[in-house]
């Protein structure tokens, strides 16, 4: 298999953990809440899903429980940062560290154990094409993630709910004076973010690399946070960013497949280096950030 | 219809009494929550309690280990707190710590036969410079490119971990080390002098205490420290007053990076004595907890670093005596910060029960 075929076939699966987590964070940030605990929520989702699939062999149950675990952790974050008005940065970091600790604790006896992944479903006709066929042969969750991307794009753009979420993020005081329950909407957005982070973790540990290793999320939650900035809070760009990072994180495997011998530590750094580079490029365009940014992001709302 | 609900009402001034009670209450609640978890895991709570919270402080030999653990936490957290107060959120101390360790190790790795009293001070200085250099990237990115230092410092930490791994399996691997990923053992002059006979406590503890005093003077007594704090509280006001935000970012990140690098140097030249993977054991992340838990105040951080160091040693004890997984320490630290953040709400707010008649349009 040559490198291009390989990357085309694998990049959507590699992108899925980034995509799911970043879509959830996108909604939370659109409502004005910066959740830095994503990495920890993914780690908890990953371990819960892995234990469930290892025990019962059912991926759907694994995803469900992982999503609920992510949401439960995000509920604590919401309580701290929204109800108790704690600093969002500190609260997010606290929840992130707690989540990573819980993940290591629960997964302790499962180090290096494996579970079976998910079968791939092919789009009839397209899946058999040469070179690009792999792109149309993906597991069920990838297809769902693509649908979710579309649904979130449409919801933010066209639905009343999307409009209200954006209004709450832009100007919570004005949204409140129009009669919208700012606190409840922010809670909902944060819980959705936690749910998606849980799913993202579940995908990472039970489908993409169905093997348990402590610290397996390896910064993907942080990259998801960066993706939301790269995308300047737009759904479509979140998708393209996630696919780009999926492709970048395949570089190590692709290089081996292509017979290129590069230093493995350098390749492992590639997603982090790309994150730093892209962050610099996008953020230096202050106008772009100002036009698309969320005005109340990170600020505590006091009714 | 009468409605009753609870509401947060801002205090006219922060309550000093609650400010002292809040961390204590948070600690008690955290202990209760975590011990419920240990019981659920089938551990005997009394045995865990003794091993974790009592044993580290009752014997001099284990308390000296607490002091040893406290040193890097104190150094790093004081540096981070300066940044946090200036609203510069450096969460990459782990990477700056690793670079400090690498820079310091360069002397014994490259000139293993060198002798002289200059070596360990030079290693500490180099370590500090290494940590500060690693913080130059996020500082430049934030000041010139407007990029979030939160994300860039974290990415730099992940890169530092890989850099350490590369050095230890590649160019810096001890040729006589049976293929273990570690450097040569440092020569005697490349290790820190011990200060308390019979223990592993070294000069770095004195440095950390002097550093604490320095941070206290800088933040509470100097004009520049005052500018940093005000800049963190009200960036627009300070910009009008002619204080530069960029300067605050540079100062915060360079101080934070230097302190973390110094701590990394002290770790390899102190208790470890060689460069190895276990250097990166999460002090940089725990120091974030230490900084917040100490209320970002130099004196408070002195106490919080002692507490977190006790938990580290206690966690090791509990692992040996009750087979409590070491990850439980991370859970304890994380939940402690959660409880603390909840508790300090009451420093700024009072909870008031409001009874209103229903009045809905």
From TrEMBL, chain A:
The chain crosses the membrane at residues 6-28, 40-57, 63-82, 89-107, 140-158, 178-205, 211-231, 238-258, 264-282. Its main location: membrane. Pfam families: BPD_transp_2 (PF02653). The keyword Transmembrane applies. It is a multi-pass membrane protein. InterPro entries: ABC_transp_permease (IPR001851). One of its GO terms (molecular function) is transmembrane transporter activity. The keyword Protein transport does not apply. One of its GO terms (cellular component) is plasma membrane. It is found in: Cell membrane. Keywords: Cell membrane, Membrane, Transmembrane, Transmembrane helix. This is ABC transporter permease. The lineage of its organism: Bacteria, Pseudomonadati, Pseudomonadota, Alphaproteobacteria, Rhodobacterales.
From TrEMBL, chain B:
Pfam families: BPD_transp_2. Coiled coil: none annotated. Keywords: Cell membrane, Membrane, Transmembrane, Transmembrane helix. It is a multi-pass membrane protein. GO terms for molecular function: transmembrane transporter activity. The chain crosses the membrane at residues 20-41, 88-111, 117-141, 150-169, 201-219, 226-243, 249-270, 282-315, 327-347. One of its GO terms (cellular component) is plasma membrane. Its main location: membrane. It is found in: Cell membrane. InterPro entries: ABC_transp_permease. PANTHER family: ABC TRANSPORTER, PERMEASE PROTEIN, GUANOSINE ABC TRANSPORTER PERMEASE PROTEIN NUPP. This is ABC transporter permease. It comes from Paracoccus aestuariivivens.
């Amino acid at each position: 298999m040559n490198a291009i075929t390989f990357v085309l076939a694998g990049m959507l699966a590699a992108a899925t953990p980034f995509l799911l987590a970043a879509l959830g964070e996108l909604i939370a940030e659109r409502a004005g809440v910066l959740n830095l605990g994503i990495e920890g929520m993914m780690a908890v989702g990953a371990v819960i899903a892995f234990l469930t699939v290892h025990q019962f062999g059912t991926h759907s149950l694994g995803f469900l429980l992982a999503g609920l675990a992510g949401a439960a952790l995000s509920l604590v974050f919401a309580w701290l940062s929204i109800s108790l008005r704690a600093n969002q940065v500190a609260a997010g970091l606290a929840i992130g560290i707690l989540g990573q600790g819980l993940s290591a604790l629960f997964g302790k006896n499962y180090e290096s154990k494996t579970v079976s992944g998910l079968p791939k479903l092919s789009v009839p006709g397209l899946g058999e094409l040469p070179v690009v066929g792999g792109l149309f042969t993906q597991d069920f969750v990838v297809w769902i993630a693509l649908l979710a991307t579309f649904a979130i794009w449409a919801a933010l753009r066209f639905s009343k709910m999307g409009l209200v979420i954006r209004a709450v993020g832009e100007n919570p005081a004005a949204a409140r004076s129009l009669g919208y329950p700012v606190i409840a909407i922010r809670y909902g957005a944060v819980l959705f973010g936690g749910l998606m982070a849980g799913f993202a973790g579940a995908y990472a540990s039970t489908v993409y690399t169905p093997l348990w290793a402590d610290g397996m999320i390896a910064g993907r939650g942080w990259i998801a946070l960066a993706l939301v900035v790269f995308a300047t809070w737009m759904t479509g760009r979140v998708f393209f960013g996630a696919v780009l990072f999926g492709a970048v994180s395949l570089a190590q495997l692709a290089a081996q497949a292509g017979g290129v011998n590069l230093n493995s530590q350098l390749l492992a750094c590639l997603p982090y280096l790309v994150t730093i580079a892209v962050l610099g490029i996008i953020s230096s365009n202050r106008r772009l950030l100002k036009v698309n940014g969320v005005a109340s992001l990170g600020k505590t709302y006091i009714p | 219809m009468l409605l009753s609900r609870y509401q947060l009402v801002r205090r006219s001034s922060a309550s000093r009494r609650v400010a002292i009670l809040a961390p204590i209450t948070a600690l008690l609640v955290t202990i209760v929550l975590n011990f419920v978890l240990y019981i659920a895991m089938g551990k005997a709570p009394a045995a865990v309690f003794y091993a974790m919270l009592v044993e580290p402080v009752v014997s001099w030999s284990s308390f000296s280990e607490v002091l040893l653990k406290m040193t890097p936490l104190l150094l790093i957290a004081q540096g981070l707190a300066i940044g946090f107060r200036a609203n510069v959120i450096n969460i990459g101390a782990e990477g700056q710590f690793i670079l400090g360790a690498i820079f310091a190790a360069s002397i014994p790795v490259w000139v293993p036969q060198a002798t002289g009293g200059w070596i360990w001070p030079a290693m500490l200085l180099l370590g500090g410079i290494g940590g500060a250099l690693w913080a130059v990237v996020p500082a430049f990115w934030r000041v010139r490119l407007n990029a979030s230092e939160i994300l860039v410092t974290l990415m730099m930490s992940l890169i530092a971990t890989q850099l350490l791994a590369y050095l230890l399996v590649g160019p810096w691997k001890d040729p006589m080390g049976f293929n273990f990923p570690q450097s040569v053992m440092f020569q005697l002059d490349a290790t820190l002098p011990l200060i308390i006979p019979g223990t592993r406590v070294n000069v770095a503890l004195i440095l950390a205490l002097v550093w604490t005093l320095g941070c206290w003077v800088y933040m509470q007594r100097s004009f520049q420290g005052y500018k940093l704090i005000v800049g963190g509280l009200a960036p627009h006001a300070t910009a009008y007053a002619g204080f530069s935000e960029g300067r605050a970012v540079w100062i915060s990140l360079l101080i934070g990076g230097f302190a973390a690098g110094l701590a990394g140097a002290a770790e390899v030249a102190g208790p470890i004595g060689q460069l190895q993977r276990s250097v990166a054991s999460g002090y940089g992340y725990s120091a974030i907890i230490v900084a917040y838990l100490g209320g970002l105040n130099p004196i408070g951080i002195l106490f919080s670093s002692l507490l977190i160091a006790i938990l580290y040693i206690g966690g090791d004890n509990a692992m040996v005596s009750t087979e409590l997984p070491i990850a439980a320490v991370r859970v304890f630290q994380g939940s402690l910060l959660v409880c603390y953040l909840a508790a300090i709400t009451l420093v700024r707010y009072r909870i008031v029960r409001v009874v209103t008649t229903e009045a809905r349009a």
